[in-house]
Design brief:
about 575 residues; alpha/beta; two-stranded antiparallel ribbon; about 55% helix; about 15% strand; elongated
């Protein structure tokens, strides 16, 4: 009886620890007032001035006040600031948005575009560009948006981060920097990324001397800062990003973002072949592009997280002469990367990912073969289990769609797969997961009581589905492959060990590790997916949840069986 209690305690601990550590991956640093390093408290002082008034390109006086504040602040730090200004006649843009958010593709843009450019010189003119846009949102083009944002997060966060970087480097001698830093405060991002487009077209320094770009953006107002986008063939880019403190990035996000219709100033840099990375907070979309994006709603811990990631990257880049090579970031492949523990990232190349996938397929085939040979699973029933899990995936996805559609209907907004703005979106998210989990547990417990083969047949089926998804994504969307590959590998190891031994301790350890890794991967990813694509993404969230549970539930049942056998000895 005692061993049963211990077993349940261990299983509960694995669950609690997995969920807690998965949530801690998204934890933030505390804001710092220490001005010897990046200080969110100091950056908030800049931000307070920037976000006093709405300052879109349509709020001409307020917009100019922010520009003059930036000019004065940078000059007071001792910088020479280049003003890159273009009149309507010079830039010639059309696709004009009105203050009401109406688009007239033939009407010329009637306002000047004015960027600010600062160089922090190093021994080499080769440098990294750090950019943010200083205009706020003045119009509404999507449901839920309200004209008149104060731009505190979008993109006051980015602008204040750049000013804090400028403060920290203002007294650093050129001789102490191997490479240069360029800062760009871009204009008119919200109406068409016009400022960054003009730099890409006309800035010879950008074209000839910049080999790495960091764009600092915001969509929500709080939560962890995601490094959510990279340039293609990002192997060397990720090597540099790994220097970040408290890194928070998933190649799943960067892979998915490449096929989504979203754009930032970073897009303009990608179009001219620049390597780099893009940052943003995502939490609380409800304030995004509304007057609620104001100073009273900022989160200084989120602001500190920008600095935690960005400053070590700058230090590495500016103190290592290897980055002086303009071709340094050229690479022939992408990296797969993900947070596996708080502050800990796993990184390997696309080529390594292919090797891992092939080895995983061989491992699974061996495990399944020996389970069949030793009579622990029946092939026909295992194939039926594969069909049942696929049906569960489709059913859960359909439920997620229906629930998100009802949420949109009740909220009075149109349903979209990637953009449903409603308050309290965490409620349908939690409800959806509880319903899916409850139904799958009911099915598993009911079937397991009638069929001694159930747990191993369904674990084999769940591992097969994860492996299949891993193989598909390895060759079609490599950044997403890790989410399926490592659960499949660990499940296959559990299967293989069970085929040869029923050892309680080895089995328990491997099964606990399998469940723990699945939780560490899925807890932050499923929540982040909700933030990124909003309630409309419940379809995808539920589908991925079923894939994870298709391994975790049979593993839990197998652990229970091991304990019963041990207690009977």
């Amino acid at each position: 009886m005692l061993i049963k209690k211990i077993n349940y305690i261990i299983m509960a601990c694995v669950l609690v620890i997995g969920v807690a550590l998965g949530a801690c991956i998204m934890c933030l640093p505390s804001s710092s007032a220490d001005t010897s390093g990046f200080s969110a408290e100091n950056a908030a002082g800049y931000l307070k001035e920037i976000s006093k008034k709405p300052h879109s390109v349509f709020d001409e006086e307020n917009h100019e006040e922010v520009r003059q504040y930036l000019l004065t602040t940078l000059r007071d730090m001792g910088y020479e600031v280049e003003e890159h200004n273009w009149t309507p006649e010079e830039h010639g843009f059309s696709d004009n948005l009105s203050p009401e958010g109406l688009l007239d593709e033939d009407r010329p843009v009637e306002y000047d575009v004015k960027n600010l450019w600062v160089k922090i010189p190093g021994k080499s003119d080769t440098g990294m560009l750090i950019m943010a846009h200083y205009d706020s949102r003045g119009h509404a083009t999507r449901t839920g948006e309200i004209p008149g944002s104060y731009g505190a997060a979008d993109d006051g966060y980015g602008v204040s981060v750049l000013l804090e970087i400028a403060r920290l480097y203002k007294d650093v001698p050129q001789s102490a920097l191997e490479n240069s830093i360029y800062l760009c405060f871009a204009d008119a991002e919200e109406t068409g990324m016009y400022g960054s487009k003009l730099e890409a077209m006309h800035n010879e320094t950008l074209k000839n001397n910049v080999n790495f770009v960091m764009n600092v953006e915001a969509r929500g107002v709080k939560g962890p800062v995601y490094m959510f986008e990279t340039s293609t063939n990002n192997r060397n880019v990720i090597r540099l990003y790994k220097n970040a403190d408290m890194p928070f990035a998933y190649s799943l996000a960067t892979a998915v973002y490449t096929v989504m219709p979203n754009f930032t100033d970073f897009t303009s840099m990608l179009e001219i072949g620049k390597a780099g990375i893009n940052f943003a907070v995502l939490d609380n979309l409800y304030y995004y592009h509304t007057p609620e994006d104001n100073f009273s709603n900022i989160n200084k811990n989120s602001l500190q997280h920008y600095g935690s990631q960005i400053m070590p990257i700058i230090k590495e880049y500016t103190t290592n002469a290897a980055y002086s090579d303009m071709d340094y970031f050229e690479a022939g492949e992408d990296s797969v990367f993900f947070n596996i523990l708080p502050t800990v990232m796993a990184v390997y190349t696309e080529t390594a990912g292919i090797v891992f996938a092939v080895l995983a397929a061989l491992l699974f085939a061996a495990a399944a073969f020996f389970l069949v040979k030793k009579g622990k699973i029946r092939l026909k029933h295992t194939l039926i289990a594969v069909g049942v899990i696929f049906a569960a995936m489709l059913g859960a996805a359909a439920f997620g769609f229906v629930l998100s559609y009802l949420v949109a209907l009740i909220g009075g907004v149109p349903w979209k797969l990637t953009y449903i703005r409603v308050p309290l979106s965490g409620i349908p998210f939690a409800l959806s997961l509880i319903v899916v989990l409850g139904l799958l547990l009911w099915f598993a417990i009911r079937k397991n009581g009638k069929n001694s083969f159930f747990k191993w047949e369904y674990l084999t089926a769940g591992a097969f589905i994860s492996l299949l998804l891993a193989l598909i994504t390895t060759f079609a969307l490599v950044g997403a492959s890790f989410l399926f590959l490592w659960p499949a590998v660990l499940a296959s190891i559990v299967m293989l060990v069970n085929a040869f031994t029923g050892n309680y301790y080895i089995g328990h350890a491997l099964m606990s590790l399998c469940s723990l890794v699945i939780l560490l991967l899925n807890v932050p990813i499923l929540y982040s997916l909700l933030l990124a694509v909003t309630t409309g993404g419940l379809l995808a969230v539920n589908l991925l949840f079923v894939v994870a549970l298709a391994i975790m539930i049979p593993v839990a049942l197998a652990q229970k069986d091991l304990t019963i056998k041990k207690a009977a000895e």
